[in-house]
Specification:
alpha/beta; six-stranded mixed sheet; 6 helices; 21% strand; globular; disordered N terminus
Length: 201
């Protein structure tokens, strides 16, 4: 497995790796370094079903939740990639108004966006910047259960942190070094990789 990853140039990563690494770095470690067939959980199936429904509803809504006027445009499931960052991903929705671009990620929860969601959105914004050639200053995490679009302002420190995460992931894979587990044990309860962590009770 690792020999495939050591090809010339930077290892290609996915935006979801950024999200997972902030949530628990071991998820990314197991995904790249162990030939484990990922079990589809009920939560993942539910998320896929919710995604389809949310797409349908979103097409009928105004842009009020995003504080944009009705001349804005929605684009769903936007493929984004950057050779410079060696990163790619599929953004849930892109809002375009005039010369401004706003990435949107849908989350199926009642909780406000967590850090991993914010950095996932930042990573999409960085891909978008490389694609459109202009700064992307803000985006939204849409929490479907409460129908709230949380605005996220992108800062230079957030961009820096995403670059550091990408470097950490590549270094972890290169060294085949298992990282620390998630700090919050509750994250381990429904994790599909839990049985591979020897230090989780």
């Amino acid at each position: 497995m690792l020999s495939e990853l050591e090809r010339p140039g930077q290892l290609q990563l996915r935006v979801t790796d950024v999200k997972q690494f902030v949530y628990c770095p071991r998820v990314v470690y197991f995904s790249y370094l162990l030939p484990i067939e990922k079990k589809v959980t009920r939560k993942m199936e539910y998320g896929k079903e919710e995604h389809i429904e949310l797409d349908r509803l979103e097409k009928r809504r105004t842009f009020r939740a995003y504080e944009l006027t009705d001349d804005a445009e929605r684009r769903f499931h936007v493929n984004l990639s950057s050779e410079r960052l060696a990163l790619s991903g599929v953004l849930d929705m892109l809002l375009v108004q005039g010369n401004a671009y706003y990435p949107v990620e849908f989350k199926y929860t009642r909780r406000p966006p967590e850090l991993n969601h914010k950095y996932q959105l930042m990573a999409y914004a960085m891909l978008l910047e490389d694609t459109v050639g202009k700064p992307v200053r803000a985006g939204f995490v849409y929490v479907s259960e409460d129908r709230i679009a949380y605005p996220i302002d992108f800062t230079p420190n957030m961009r820096k942190f995403v670059r550091e995460i990408l470097a950490s992931i590549r270094e972890m894979i290169k060294r085949e070094q298992m990282p620390h587990r998630a700090r919050q044990k509750k994250k381990c309860v429904d994790c599909e990789f839990r049985r591979f962590c020897n230090d989780i009770e």
